């Protein structure tokens, strides 16, 4: 049954590939092999009841802070070095460990409940004993089991699709749980399988599956099925149903499990939340090391001092340990001081930072300004620990399509056969639609003020940015059954394409038999041109992966082929019209048809005719005349002669041919209207949807799709079935997509290809044969290239359309290589790419398209603000140079006075020379360097923009040229990388990040931006029209590019300033309080004694002064949001440098500690006050100084701040009073009973505290007042500017009012003696 002799050993098999057979097989070795694979039970929880305590403690010991605390706690149990009661020293570490453990067990419990609910989900698994499907839990599914699923059920494991109730063997799945995409994906049953239905006996399945080992690549699956006969059938990603996906629009599917549980691709991609270390956190580590050095110096000073004190001590009046040597005693004191001064190391700061970041994330997440109502999408913070990095960005790398633009495509114009069709009526429709939407948008209360319409082109109008988003509200009511993504790709403005009159006129010659073709001299289109036009729109309709559905039928139901609009005799008559000699030129471009073609009646159009060579030559001349090699005839003169048909919607002429033409157009328009009403196209990209709707506008309608065929309506013919042989999907390396079909009329194998012009134009060429045919192809290529350049200058997205006709023998040779590549496990992708490249060669260029992709709202304002903030904006796109430059102009990245530097080379040596020459040109100009203060303050000013294409970028990124490239790029105002691949994008980001050591941010919306997003310090994904891959790989996710402005300039500024100031404040209060204990050592022989009880010492930083910094770290607003938005320069001008301010903070803390200690010391000098009584005013003054210091430094003072500060002070005084009233022996050897109550009942206590507090804070207060005078805050400057503007406006209004008054003046009298006397007499 199974050929075991061909199986490798178990160890070798596990290393290279996986073998899967049915679980009910009788072979013992294979059964053991299946059992060795992991089951389907998942467990994401980390702990159990028995393992929680040891495992959690072990994990917490990996944190250096916890190890430090535990070490100090254990050290305090050593009698010779202990500083206070060991029981008290245990309290901090117990609280920290217990709090962390509670948080961990709470999170793990939620994971456990989620795992349990998932593992207990039901599914139907085939049982060989009962010969039927039985219900089992997901956790009981094993590799090799057959699983039966119905529509809307979730797939329990990675399964190979063996059967589908769809007659075409197709299954539709929704992958939203994996990648966030709601568009339906099509999966195909493995070919040549014996299963004929869901109830087929599965015991007859004896095939063996060989596939790759489990991996996390969602887009790749390699393997083959080997049947008992030895036949191998290749497996690919379209045969695999992934765990967590949902079956849609398919009644029943059956699959065999190949990966289960944690070996499924979904689980292997579940890596948990992203973790990145922020730049501020790196600076904090340096600060902590300085604190460690300070602690070491202070402890070493105390140890040396104690040794010298003991050595010089003579006849002590108190008990002293004389048996221990001074050196050893100093060693003991060193460790005692480590315990006493432990709070100098701000270990609790790490915990406080995490709490503050959670608060910051909460406010960012709930900012209504970052909410997009149409998409119901808000900002997502996927990386919780780098919020402050948003305030330090220096370089921003952006994609273009979908990031700066809408990525909602509308067909604008096209070029076919070298003839350009501008679709001017369609352009005017878009302008009218834009104006209407602008008027509606201006009346909306929720429309942003700056959200006015913008054009992508500097010279041509486009569509309002609000066009598609606004119309979604209308379509939502009409198409509730459709998916959101389908609604976006099939928007009303994209559907309603108005045909070009000239193109309609040419198609009318094809439709109406009453109109005869001409040889080119009369203005009628040649048959060759009509062939190009038909093939062009047929390629638009079928060269895609669009899923067709409607309200009445789901996507998996293919509509039956309808009765053609014309009878067979009419079609024959129509094609006989096309047997003119001009069509003989096609014989050079297309090979002969298959002899056994079932559609031989169409050979006259799509196959060579029997015309003579002389006829061919004359036809070529006519074709050249029509294609534009000769002057184009005047359309108006042809209309006067009655030879041209009227376009749709115009009046019909009286002649019979025009009347017949109008009737044909009416029938075609009825067909088109029915299609528009019924069909819904679900496309994976908006480009595909726009092109399919454009083809539909010309009655070339895609009506259905299956794995073997496509149902297409052709103009003048009706519904035809196009056999689909192969689909070569789009990838970023080839930059094109192809479909291999058998032509429905000729039976020939035809390859239709669409892709970027850089990928298609190089593959097109003139065929060998007559010189006239080569001249035609050369002319078409030249004209199409001119049109492509024109489209790019207008900001349109361009695509080229081409085809290739294969001989049957040529197709069979290619097919063998393709099947061999599909069945290969090793190097499958490389073999498939090679096979596609072999097929996509020697193409015949049909034409090109230009698609409008509108700029998002407020993109120019956002980029201008970012540049004023000192952030360099670079655009990395795969589009043409002209398109990228046009977009740069439209979004104000490129100003009118900026100079373009173009880097386009054909070799590495030329690239090196060009980079040096461009650098010399920049140096000679004398323009300020990009990123300089004068440039940032002026908003950028004039400068250089470097434009580089992908080929040149490859050479520039090599090791010997990357330094020159980086130097030139940094000298320019911005960089535009055109035709760049995803790999090149990530290489540019990595080069800038590593070589310049700057903070980088990358923003994109598609899968091709994932590598760039992951390489950057901060990655931002835009939830646009290309799925959620970018969002799922990002640190932050937004819905519009304009949200970057507030996210960086406001929230980024706030987050960084808050955390930086909180870190400095933590260091200040720790150093200040620790120095109080250190100064006391000079008066106690450096013995490690303290002037306060242990409870206050432990709780001072843990409780009494811990909450105010957290509050300020979350709520402080150093500058108002509207000021930061209006003055972007504040983003980089007001940054706090933590390393530089560290020593200023330490010196200030030293001064305040000196005042706080020695003022009470001087007041108590010579008195008999006890140690605790001496320490009472010191502790109280320290608390007041620390709290009031924060009041002075805090830019925000609200009732919440006041309440927290009052509660902190009240908690301290309440605690020490209760301790003094009720604690008798809680802090031996000292006795705090009555000490605090006695001190607080005497007036000197309050006098000392007030004097100490004022003296300590006067320098800080004077410094802050002087600093604010010399460097006023933005709020003060804004207020003064507003006052000046208001004053100026007042005087201007008063002057205008005085000028508008009449010239006659009041007479002088006793009530107004200051007025001039009146010349008239007053009676």
From TrEMBL:
What residues form the catalytic site here?
399
Q: Which parts of the sequence belong to the P-type ATPase C-terminal domain?
A: 1031-1273
Which amino acids does the record list as binding ATP?
399-401, 688, 730, 754, 797, 877-879, 979, 985, 1008-1009
EC supergroup of this enzyme: translocase
Which keywords has UniProt assigned to this entry?
A: ATP-binding, Endoplasmic reticulum, Magnesium, Membrane, Metal-binding, Nucleotide-binding, Translocase, Transmembrane, Transmembrane helix
Q: Where in the cell is it found?
A: Endomembrane system; Endoplasmic reticulum membrane; Membrane
Q: Which residues form the P-type ATPase N-terminal domain?
A: 35-88
Reactions performed catalytically: ATP + H2O + phospholipidSide 1 = ADP + phosphate + phospholipidSide 2; a beta-D-glucosyl-(1<->1')-N-acylsphing-4-enine(out) + ATP + H2O = a beta-D-glucosyl-(1<->1')-N-acylsphing-4-enine(in) + ADP + phosphate + H(+)
PROSITE patterns from the UniProt entry: ATPASE_E1_E2
Cellular-component GO terms for this entry:
endoplasmic reticulum membrane; phospholipid-translocating ATPase complex; plasma membrane
Q: Where is the composition biased (Basic and acidic residues)?
A: 656-673
Q: How does it sit in the membrane?
A: Multi-pass membrane protein
Is Hydrolase one of the keywords? no
Enumerate the NCBIfam families for this protein. ATPase-Plipid (TIGR01652), ATPase_P-type (TIGR01494)
Q: What is this protein called?
A: Phospholipid-transporting ATPase
Q: What is the lineage of its organism?
A: Eukaryota, Metazoa, Chordata, Craniata, Vertebrata
